[in-house]
Amino acid sequence: MFHQITLESLGPLQSLATNVSTKAKYVWDDYIELWNIRDENRRLHKKLDEYDDKFNVYLEAYSTYLGLIEKLKFKEKEPFPSISAKVVGKGPSYWFQTIIVDRGENDGIVEGMVARTEKGVVGQVIQVSPNYCKILLANAPSSAIDAMVQKNRVRGILKGAGNGGYTLYYVLKNADVAVGDRIVTAGIGGVFRSGIPLGTVAAVRKKQRGMFQEIEVDPAVDFQRLETVFINLTEKLSWEAEIENVSGDNN
Amino acid sequence: MLIFFFLFLGIFTVVMQSTFFPLLPDWLGRPDFIFILVVFAAYKFGWIHGLFYAFVLGWMTDVMSGIQLGIFPLQYILLFTFLKVITENSPLKESAYQVPLVGFSYFIIQMGFYFLYSIILPGTLPEWSWNRMVQETIIILLATIPSFIAFNYCYEFFSKRRVVHRVVRKRTGNEFR
């Protein structure tokens, strides 16, 4: 009897103590686990950062690779012999649109040569030193290119408008030109062959007075993000051939 | 030493202006630090050093960005001369007027430059934009204050070194009397 009473009274206490200790153990284990998780979390975060860095490097390398593939395709496809040049500087002045590239006389560059990218016309070489040259961008107001609307061969003169892109002049009012039409080189004048992309029509204005419409053109080339350009060496080669011919005739 | 330091600073500024700044977004503005340097030279340098400095900065800017050589040296020499003439022996040289004078001279020089070009070589420059010019003037005004503090610190530092060097040389001479 006494044995049963003792058992009945200590039993709940034991049960309570066991429950409490079990709970405490769980709490303690969770607490310890939390510490471990925190450590692991830190470690994983660090690892994630490392992988993020690596991923960015790979992504950059991949986009460089894609860009190079595109440039290589362009170089293989183009009929003219060209030399690639890296853009090392951009004219700081708002008034003039120029860039400096790392090719010069030593690479066969002469004034007047045309620079292009796979997207379209970039500009023309205006000053040359032994290892560098300055290119006047096609969006400079002083540059003018014979251009045409690709869909119907309507011709005009494309002039640079600074940071605003291009303006296509001398297109008659009755010519069918609409926003989105592609503008390409006309191939007149011998500087550019025909069909090189210049841009797309962004706006067409027909004023009441005058014969011509005013056409705003968005450049095909992003002049703000130029990294590499190709300089057409044809002119140099034709000069050399001409000099050889002249010296051959003299001999 | 002083002029050499400022020449190096000029070269550094021209390089940064033609490589790093064009990468910045348009809305952030690209203050013309070369212009600020020329104005600073007009406040601090003598005629000979200042004109030489303005010419060198103009020449470098011309090579980096100009189409017709000679425009920027002319522009900077005129700017230097204009500021030197109006600030010499005049209260305009006081620091309170210096920063507004930068904005004023920037605006006047840009207008003069555009006017000159539109007469000599019409159609060579983009269309005049009041918005753009006002925006650039405000940006240059904002950039002038920290730039002047930094340039002034460098100027004082190198000037003091020059004075100390002279004093030390004088003392050394006296020892042998």
Keywords:
heterodimer; A: 251 residues; alpha+beta; Thrombin, subunit H; 6-stranded antiparallel beta barrel; 6-stranded antiparallel β-barrel; 37% helix; B: 177 residues; globular
CATH class category of chain B: Mainly Alpha
The CATH architecture name of chain B reads Orthogonal Bundle
Count of helical regions of chain A = 2
State the helical fraction of chain B.
over 70%
User: What is the residue-mean pLDDT of chain B, rounded to a whole number?
Assistant: 82
Task: Order the strands across the largest sheet of chain A as they lie in space.
Answer: 1-2-5-4-3-12
The helix-strand sequence of chain A is: HEEEEEEEEEEEEH
Strand residue percentage of chain A: 25-35%
CATH topology category name of the domain at 78-138 and 227-250 in chain A:
Thrombin, subunit H
Question: What's the total count of β strands of chain B?
Answer: 0
Number of strands of chain A: 12
Low-confidence regions of chain A: none
Structure description:
- The complex is a heterodimer of chains A (251) and B (177).
- The mean pLDDT of chain A is 83.
- In chain A, the strands form 2 sheets. Chain A has a 6-stranded antiparallel β-barrel. In chain A, strands 6-7-8-11-10-9 form a 6-stranded antiparallel barrel.
- Chain A contains 2 helices and 12 strands, in the order H-E-E-E-E-E-E-E-E-E-E-E-E-H.
- With 251 residues, chain A is α+β, with helices and mostly antiparallel strands.
- In chain A, 37% of the residues lie in helices and 29% in strands.
- Among the domains of chain A are: 78-138 and 227-250, Thrombin, subunit H; 144-220, Rod shape-determining protein MreC, domain 2 (Thrombin, subunit H).
- Chain A has helices at residues 2-77, 234-250, and strands at 82-90, 98-101, 114-116, 121-128, 133-137, 144-149, 155-160, 166-172, 182-185, 197-205, 212-219, 228-232.
- In chain A, strand 1 (82-90) and strand 2 form a beta hairpin.
- The termini of chain A are far apart.
- With 177 residues, chain B is mainly alpha-helical.
- Chain B has a single domain, classed as Arp2/3 complex 21 kDa subunit ARPC3, CATH 1.10.1760.
- Chain B is 77% helix and 0% strand.
- Chain B has helices at 2-19, 33-44, 47-65, 71-87, 95-120, 130-174.
- In chain B, helix 1 runs parallel beside helix 3, helix 2 runs parallel beside helix 4 and helix 2 (33-44) packs across helix 6 (130-174).
- The two termini of chain B are 29 Å apart.
- Classes of the chains: A alpha+beta (251), B mainly alpha (177).
- At the A-B interface, strand 1 of A face helix 1, helix 3 and helix 5 of B.
